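One such shown below:

_____
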Amino acid sequence: MDKRSPTWTFFKICEDNSKVMCKLCSTVISRGSASAKTYTTTALNNHLPYKQPQEFKEVVNSRTTGAASKCSAANVQQSQPTLAEVVAKRKSVQAWSVHFAIVMMIAVDIQA
C-alpha cells in the first residue's frame, strides 16, 4: 500500500483494516468507513494537532517543504513557447506546411 501522506509515520494499521493505531499514544482511530475505497486520513490529521502537537508541526513542515519543491520544479518551464518558437524547432518544413494546411482547413470550415 502506497502511503503518500507524512501523517502515516505516526500511525500503523490495525488487524481490522478500517482502523489505525497512533504509535505515540496507542489511540485507535477509524479510517473512515468499512470500504477500502473510502478510507481517508482526515481522522488521523485531526488527531495529531490535538493529541500530538509537536509531531503535527513536523507533518505541516514536511508538507510545506514538499509543496515548495513541487512549485520550484513547476517553474522550470516558465512560459508556453510561442508559435514562432515551435515552428523554429520543427525539423521538416514539408511536415509543417501540411500541418498548417490542415489547421487552415479546420479554421475555414468552422467559420462557414
Observations:
- The chain has four helices and three strands.
- The chain has two domains: 6-74, 79-112.
- Residues 6-74 form one domain.
- The first strand starts at residue 11 and ends at 13.
